[in-house]
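seq:
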Amino acid sequence: MKVTIGQINTTNGDIQGNVAKILRAIKKAREDRSDIVVLPELSIHGYTSQDWFQDEDIVSSALDPLQQIIPNTQGLTAVLGTIRPNPDKDGRRLFNSAAVIHDGKLLGFADKTLLPEYDVFDDPRYFEPSNTRKLFEISGLKLGVAVCEDFWNDKTFWKGRLYESDPTDELIELGADLIVSVNASPFNKGKIKLRCDMVAHRAREEKIPIVFVNLVGGNDGIIFDGASLVADEEGDIILQAKAFEEFVETVELDVRKPDSRGITGNETEAIRRALVLGVRDYAHKNGFKKAVLGLSGGIDSALVATLACEALGPENVLCVMMPSPFSSEGSISDSQRLVENLGCELRIEPISDAYDVLLHQLKFEQPERGGENLAAENMQSRIRGVIIMAISNAEGRLVLATGNKSELAVGYCTLYGDTNGGIAVIGDVLKTEAYALARQINESAGNEVIPQEIIDKAPSAELAPDQFDSDSLPPYELMDPILKLYFENKLSLTEIIERGHDPELVYSLLNKVESPANEFKRRQLPPTLIISKNAIGIGRRRPVTHKFRRTPQED
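struct:
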C-alpha cells in the first residue's frame, strides 16, 4: 500500500489558499499512484483560527470547501482535517473533524472526542466533542481515523493521562487494519522525539501500522514542525518527514524498511530552525517582506539579526544601531562586524541629542552607576523604540523584538522601549539558550557568524556607566534552571527548592515573575515565538491584578 504524506503549511482563514495546497497534494498522490493521501488537522481552515470558528459565515459554509476537493479524489482515498456543523441545537456549533473521501465520494467524518484546553489549546471553546467511533471500509481495508488529541491518550505509554477514554484504542478494538492520525501538534523542546516514541510504541504494542501526519508552519507565535511519521506493525519508523518544511511525498507502507528522507539534527538546531520558520511565516503571512531591529552589540540582538537574515534574506533585514552616551566602543565595533558577516543593511542613529533634550526638559539627572535614575535609563530605551517604530512606519518593515525569556520573566525590560515589536523572536528563549544557539550557529557555519566577542562579553543594557546585568540580576546560569522548572515543568516553589536550588534565590526570582507590574509588561508584549511548554505568550494566562508575594516563612 502506498501512502502520501501531505504535510502542508496552512494559513488561518485562507480557505482558498489552503484548498489549493490540498489539491496539489492530492495531485501528487495520484501521480505517485498512491492509495491514501493524508493531510493535517483543520487543514482547510487553519489551526487555530480561534474565534473565527464562532463566526456565522464560517459555520454556515463549513462544508463548502469540500465540494472543491471531493471530485479530485478519483482512484484514491483522502483523509483531511476540516470542520463540520453540529446538527444538534445543544452544544458547540462545530465538530473538529477528519473528512474521509474515497474515489470521488464523501464516506463520512471522524469527529474529535478529546478536546484539549491546556497551554495554547482551547478546543472546548469552539468544538463539540464526539461520543461515537467508527471504521471506514475501503477496498477491504478497515481504516480507523483519529483527530490529534484522540491519538494522544495511550494508557500504556503515558504515566499520567488527562482523559479516561482512548478513542484510538477503541478504533483498534473495532478491528482497524490501519490507524491514520491527523494532527496540528505544535513544536516545543523534545516534542519531535516524543512523537516518534509515542507512535512507535502504539504500533509495536498493537501490531498495527500507523500514519501520523502533522501540520507545518508558523501561525502567530505557534510553530508547527511537521515531522510526520509512518510506523509499520512492528513499531519501526519507516518514514519521518523533514521538519520545519512542507513535505508531500509517498512511502510504500509494506516495504518495512527505514526511508532515507527522515530528519536529523540536535535539539538546539531544531530550536534554531523553528525560530527561522516562525519569523519567515509571521512576516510573509502578514504581508511583510522586510524587517528592522535595534542592534545593541549584545547576544540577543545579534542572535535575532542572524535568525532574521536566514528567514528573510539579509537584503531584507535592517539593523539600526542607536548609541547613547553609555554605549561602549566594543559594542559598536562588534555590531559592525556582525553586520558585515551577515551582509544585511546597517544604519546608525545616535540618541544622545534627543536624550539630552529630554533630560533637560524633564529635569532628570544623568544615571550613575547602580541605576539611581531608573527613569532616565528607561528613557533611552524608549527613544530607541520611537526610532525603530518610525522606520517601521516609513518603510513598511516588521519590527523584531529582541528580548529573551529570562529578562521578560523577571521584568528586566522597558515597556514601550525594547518590548516594542511585531513579533518577539526569542521571547521564549532563555538567556543561556541564546548563547547555545549562537554557538550552534557558528559551529554549523564553520566560522564566526556571530563574533566571539559578542558571545564572550558580560551582558549589559548599557543604560548607565559601567552597567552590567549582574548589577540587577543573579547570574543567568543560576536563574535559568529555576525559570525552566517553574514555567516548563510547572513545579511549585517547594518542589524547585527540593531540586537543590537556593531558597532565597527561588523566592526572589518567582516574586519578580509573578509581580503585577511585570505581568502588566508581559501582557503588552508582541506575539512570542513559542519553543517550550507553558511559554510566556498565548498559552500562559495570569491576571495582572493579583497578590503573589511569598516568603519562606509563609510556607
